[in-house]
Amino acid sequence: MSNDFFPPRPASRPAIYAYEDTNPQYAGLLKVGYTTVDAQSRVAQQYPTRRPGRLPYRIVLEEPAMRNDGTVFTDHDVHRMLRVNGVKNPEGEWFRCTVAQVKAAIIAVRTGQLNEENRSLDFTMRPEQVEAVEKTAAYFDSWRKDQGNRNKPSRFLWNAKMRFGKTFAAYQLAKKMGWRKVLVLTFKPAVQSAWEEDLKGHLDFSKWQFIKPGGLTYEQANKKKPFVCFGSFQDYLGRNPSTGGIKTKNEWVHSTHWDCVIFDEYHYGAWRENAKELFESEDEKERKFAEGEGIADFDEEIIPITTGAYLYLSGTPFRAIASGEFIEEQIYNWTYSDEQRAKRDWTGQKNPPLRCPGWC
Questions:
Q1: CA-to-CA distance for 124 and 203, rounded, in angstroms?
Q2: Exposure on the CB side of residue 32, measured as CA atoms within 13 A
Q3: Of 95, 124, 118, 126, nearest to 16 (Cα)?
Q4: Which of these, 164, 220, 162, 170, lies nearest to 199 by C-alpha position?
Q5: I need a surface site. Which of 185, 209, 275, 288 has the fewest CB within 10 A?
Q6: Three-state SS letters, the chain
Q7: Measuring CA to CA, which residue among 86, 167, 82 is closest to residue 119?
Q8: What is the predicted pLDDT for the residue at 171?
Q9: How many CB atoms are located within 10 Å of the residue 213 CB?
Q10: pLDDT tens digit string along 194-205?
Q11: Model pTM score
Q12: To which CATH superfamily is domain 127-345 assigned?
């Protein structure tokens, strides 16, 4: 069938832009945003009332929002990098910075590089994050002390909505538990930047190393210092197309005994029986788990990944909870209602002390 009647849609041009408001009261502030159209059109949408004379804004930057590996990043990634580099963020997407600083942040995101010597984040945990860490640590400790659980890994679920700060809180849990080898597996590799920036930008994690595809390797890492390895299920648990076994480059992941394996964005995964058996063998066939899109089935030839604990992170783990996969003692809940109540009852500064409060 001819496509003459269906002309292709113009390809989007993802870009990061920055502009300044010409009102003197906003001097020194830049608005940093993301668009798939040209910056002029996008900024004009934010100033819908036309007036005579000069435009009330001036666009000072427009750069492609594409990483070197071909993936797209957004203004949120650039915002995080700006904060990591110590740039003040008085409100929303407005930053007190120069055009050069925005360009530097874009380059850092695009190339996947972060200056570990320029740690400037020093925010503390919010009360609900402290509560999650304390409850989880107490459960893990009690499990470890129970002789009947010897050689069995513990498991815990954080059922927490967006803006909770699961990445930062998970790292604080790792510190509290004294973990030194943490594996983070996700179905959404795009979240890598948040995991990396929190670890490499916050003063609390100055001794930690971040292993990732295309970055620091396991061989290069200092084994005397703690490290986090970040990767996707599709990569670390995928089959070698020629041999059918695990990929040679990932054998170290399977041979390492991890202090904790963190399953990020758990609800995106396809937790089928064979895939789950890669991690937990005891009583596994007696449980029922949700199926969905994601990794394919695995067979017994895949070497299991072993660990002392599992932490599951999800904003919508409805099937996992409904199936009885976790009991009440193994779950920390932080819902939209909890967030609204916390906002209402907050007695400190305007926003809680967090890099990306989300309460503005």
A1: 10
A2: 32
A3: 95
A4: 170
A5: 288
A6: CCCCCCCCCCCCCCEEEEEEECCHHHCCEEEEEEECCCHHHHHHHCCCCCCCCCCCEEEEEEEECECCCCCECCHHHHHHHHHHCCCEEEECCEEECCHHHHHHHHHHHHHCCCCCCCCCECCCCCHHHHHHHHHHHHHHHHHHHCHHHCCCCEEEEEEECCCCCHHHHHHHHHHHHCCCEEEEEECCHHHHHHHHHHHHHEHHHCCCEEECCCCECCCCCCCCCCEEEEEEHHHHCCECCCCCCECHHHHHHHHCEECEEEEECHHHCCCCHHHHCCCCCCCHHHCCCCCCCCCCCCCCCCCCCEECEEEEEECCCHHHHHCCCCCHHHEEEECHHHHHHHHHHCCCCCCCCCCCCCCC
A7: 86
A8: 97
A9: 17
A10: 898 888 888 899
A11: 0.64
A12: P-loop containing nucleotide triphosphate hydrolases (3.40.50.300)
Q: Where are the alpha helices (DSSP H) in 146-249?
A: 166-177, 192-201, 233-236
What CA–CA distance (Å, rounded) separates 153 from 144? 8
Average pLDDT over all residues of the chain: 77
Least confidently predicted of 17-26, 86-95, 173-182: 86-95
Of residues 357, 237, 257, the one with CA closest to residue 301: 237
Q: Report residue 345's pLDDT band, with 50, 70 and 90 as the boundaries.
A: confident
Q: Do the Cβ atoms of 187 and 153 come closer than 8 Å?
A: no
The boundaries of every CATH 3.40.50.300 domain in the chain are 127-345
For residues 348 and 127, give the distance between their C-alpha atoms in angstroms, rounded to a whole number: 12
CB atoms within 10 A of CB 162: 10
Q: Is 218 exposed, middle or buried (0-12, 13-18, 19+ CB in 10 A)?
A: middle
